[in-house]
Design a protein that fits this description.
The complex is a heterodimer of chains A (about 110) and B (about 110). Chain A has about 110 residues and is mainly beta. In chain A, about 0% of the residues lie in helices and about 45% in strands. Chain A has no helices and 10 strands. Chain A has strands at about 5, 10-15, 20-25, 30-35, 45-50, 65-70, 75-80, 90-95, 105, 110. In chain A, about 35% of the residues are buried. Chain B is mainly beta. Classes of the chains: A mainly beta (about 110), B mainly beta (about 110). The interface between A and B is medium-sized, with 21 and 21 residues.
Chain lengths: ~110, ~110
């Protein structure tokens, strides 16, 4: 079946603008994760959704970052008032459940000018 | 803070040799461990996972887990230039259900 898809693949924005990043997980996967990977760095956990449970937002770096998951499927990560330090690759992953193998999407490369 | 530690490398091995990648973790409650490969500019892809102490083999890859020493390793036999990538180790965080990733080891397989 189809893997995790993300859009857009690349996004260039100006400092101070809001951006929305989309993730469409593998069908049937109940867990969805967002990570951020800066140049040459490891994966930084941002937020985790599991079924209908309250999301784990412990990795969000500031209140400019938010995410939602509608209908237990597609998720949107929103960054308000973007800053240059937000420039990174934003990766989405999904799995069949917590602690299970995560499958990653191709990522969205965000550049804030 | 629950951590996963890896040597950033680069680890350079000649073609045909065995590459040994190592990882330590701090959370004794971790039960599941994963190795991902990430080519430059690409997203991580799963290589192997391991839950039990000992060795797990899949083709040219062997994952090793020692929970007493909190140590995970990945061996790549008959290394090929196409194996050149960054290898990420990840561990579940026990009660928290999400994976913690190391910063990765960059492997270079030379001709």
């Amino acid at each position: 079946g189809a893997g995790v898809s993300q859009s857009p693949s690349n996004k260039v924005t100006e400092k101070g603008k809001d951006v929305e990043l989309r993730c469409d997980p593998i069908s049937g996967h109940t867990a969805l994760y967002w990570y951020r990977q800066s140049l040459g760095q490891g994966l930084e956990f941002l937020i985790y959704f599991q079924g209908n449970s309250a999301p784990d937002k412990s990795g969000l770096p500031s209140d400019r970052f938010s995410a939602e998951r509608t209908g237990g499927s597609v998720s949107t990560l929103t960054i308000q008032r973007t800053q240059q330090e937000d420039s990174a690759v934003y990766l989405c992953a999904s799995s069949t459940g917590s602690g299970e193998t995560q499958y990653f999407g191709p990522g969205t490369r965000l550049l804030v000018l | 803070q629950k951590e996963v530690e890896q040597n950033s490398g680069p680890l350079s091995v000649p073609e045909g040799a065995i590459a040994s990648l190592n990882c330590t973790y701090s959370d004794r409650g971790s039960q599941s461990f994963f190795w991902y490969r990430q080519y430059s500019g690409k997203s991580p892809e799963l290589i192997m996972f391991i839950y039990s102490n000992g060795d797990k083999e899949d083709g040219r890859f062997t994952a090793q887990l020692n929970k007493a020493s909190q140590y995970v390793s990945l061996l790549i036999r008959d290394s090929q230039p196409s194996d050149s990538a960054t290898y990420l180790c990840a561990a579940d965080t026990g009660t928290a259900s999400k994976l913690t990733f190391g910063t990765g080891t960059r492997l270079q397989v030379t001709l």
